[in-house]
Amino acid sequence: MLSQVLGNLNKFSTKDTLIDYESFDDAAAYNLNNETILQTVDFFTPIVDDPYDFGRIAAANSLSDIYAMGGKPLFALNIVAFPVDDLPLSVLTDILRGGSDVASEAGIPILGGHSIKDKEPKYGLVVTGTPFKTPIKNSTAQPGDVIILTKPLGLGIISTAIKKDIADKNMIDEAVNIMTYLNKDASEAMISTGVNACTDITGYGLLGHLLEMCKGSKLSANINFDSIKFIDGSKELAAKGIVPGGTKRNYDFIKENISFSNDLEMYQKYLLADAQTSGGLLISIPKEKLDELNSKLSGAKYECVKIGNFEPLESNPYIKVS
User: 260 FRET partner, CA 20 to 30 A, in 28, 75, 202, 266?
Assistant: First the structure.
């Protein structure tokens, strides 16, 4: 949304600007004293009831953009909005403790930040990092590349079920575990293996982010619904109509660029457009390197799955779902 608005403004840039909002990449890149610096910012309102878990989720989500670009986080700053007249400061303490614990897990300090008084809590991080080599972009996939997804989908569906108080404890625990699981190991594995492109799955859902990769790389993608992993219970919830408004808007925005199999029902299409928080990495890798990547990710907490492949673009639709 912000990048679309910025496109209407007079742009100022310098020779040291390497990546900005125009490319729809996950983080900005800037040349500072002949070294590439990555920077990103993200924050949002609570999607779970527990303030400590909210802090952990928000921090992991903020760090993900650096990992998606093949980067190493260096340090972070807190961004906080909090209703000091309505909630005890102990809630804010728990939020910040959650963020601090995840930052520690990532091996970085939180050096400070900024807070404002607001009617609803909001939390996130500004994260500064540096790429291990050159930044991995979302627009450099190649024909024949295999498409890999490193976390299961369904987080938006589960978050809506939590708000409606119809999600059971196991479902909530699994969603929190997925959202707080850093993309650090997956990022390091793809860096050492060598991949062509990457992005992370967040607010635009799988199809939205895959569409960005297709348009940027001038390719089409074939994906198989049955190959994709979903959180236990998310399919059943979607089939019952538990679908967030953001997911429906995602679908409406991208549907003209997608060709769906006639076998897929509407709820399955929504699952593929489901808005995620702190989702997995979407990796484009040459097929001859797939076994090496799988070997390096064999100990990952969540199964990394091949969901499709890229092909030369002949005409719209950009994505075919079977």
Answer: 202
